[in-house]
Amino acid sequence: MPGPGRPRAFDRDAALRTAMRLFWDRGYEAVSITDLTAAMGIGTRSLYTAFGSKEQLFREAVALYSSGSGTEGFCDLPTARETFESWLRDRADGYTRVDRPRGCMVVMAATNTSADNDAVRDLLAQMRNRDREMLTARLERAKRTGEVAEHVDARAVASFYLSLIYGMSTQAKDGYTAADLAAVVDTAITAWPHLVT
Amino acid sequence: MPGPGRPRAFDRDAALRTAMRLFWDRGYEAVSITDLTAAMGIGTRSLYTAFGSKEQLFREAVALYSSGSGTEGFCDLPTARETFESWLRDRADGYTRVDRPRGCMVVMAATNTSADNDAVRDLLAQMRNRDREMLTARLERAKRTGEVAEHVDARAVASFYLSLIYGMSTQAKDGYTAADLAAVVDTAITAWPHLVT
DNA sequence: TTATTTGTGCATCGAACGCTACACAATTAG
DNA sequence: CTAATTGTGTAGCGTTCGATGCACAAATAA
Question: Which top-level group of life is the source organism from (chains A, B) (predicted)?
Fold first, then answer.
């Protein structure tokens, strides 16, 4: 139900998706407004009318990205091992899709920021930190059910697997194939029983 | 033995070290010439006279960085396990030093680059790739000596540990303590015997 | 001395940055 | 219809980007 006013002449969702791809591929500061408007097929003014600012557009792009690849869903799987294994495999696959930018947007899109844009860097850092808490909590829960031994350092094991995830983003950007990353995940999962008992 | 011409009024090595710190901390594109001259305490013209261009200065900074933290040295240790363990511990320690930028310059300093600076990104990608080849070769060597079982996928195991190294850079930037990363390394080393037999 | 060479400070270049003022177009509300 | 509201295109804002031209300073060489 559109109110009064001239209707938008482009598909906002499609334009946002395009912007997300660009930010995902190059990072926040490396994508210019000109890059965005060219790829989205709209004028500068339309971008600002629809999205407010470059930073707000980026925040929306990140929200769109994470809506399609949240870590929460994996935590509901019956065992911690299933949580970690399917989460790792899903990421390894997602990072090497031919139809998408490589690696993880949350890990890669704001690593090099000038002082003006620390807020953007911090946004992604907070999202990474939430994953850390989430996965640590999942392991703590597994300790209560007995799946994971009492003496295990849940935070250390969660950090260990997170480190792999972060690293696989760099590797995906470096051209590692889906099979390469799958082999990394296989190796990581081989270690699981020896880390939780 | 200085030739003719006015002598340089600043310490070139110290200035290069300062530039390295800046690039290491913020990344290539996020550091401006103004940032550099301010931190180095020299004028724009002196920077260009001494270093040529921003890209050449960056390349020198990377060379200085890698001269102090090459992976080669670890490969000479008697066993592959020592190579990987001391290499991991050295990195985990180096990424969390209070007197240095966090994380690894080669991993973090050129992840977000606009199309103009792909050469800089590729420079670091090549250095990462050399490490991959070096560590894979070290494991192949260990297979010949019998330390590592024949059936082991050397490339996969090397990639697995490299992924951890890359990930620890992100974690160091996220504020993980030296103890946090040491725990990640402990976890990774716990897995070693189960990955090579 | 004079010629040559190299470094420095100042002023600034053209280009790109994120962003916006303004006039106008296109819609709904009354 | 008119009024109100919102989107679009052009043209350009002020700033910063990496890099330079030029006059001068400070050294060596002859």
Answer: Bacteria
Closest nucleotide C1' to the C-alpha of A55: C18
Domains and CATH numbers, chain A: 12-65 (1.10.10.60), 70-195 (1.10.357.10)
Which nt has its C1' nearest the CA of A36?
Answer: C18
Q: Which residue of B has its CA nearest to A195?
A: B187
Largest CA distance in chain B: 64
Tens digits of residue pLDDT in B131-188:
999 999 999 999 999 999 999 999 999 999 999 999 999 999 999 999 999 999 999 9
> Which residue has the closest alpha carbon to D20 C1'?
B45
Interface of B with A in 5-64 (CB under 8 A): 26-32
Instruction: Burial-class residue B81 by CB neighbours within 10 Å (0-12, 13-18, 19+).
Output: middle
ipTM associated with this complex:
0.95
- If phi > 0 it is left, if psi is from -120 to 50 it is alpha, else beta; for residue B41 that is left
What pLDDT digit, counting tens, does each position of A33-62 carry?
Answer: 999 999 999 999 999 999 999 999 999 999
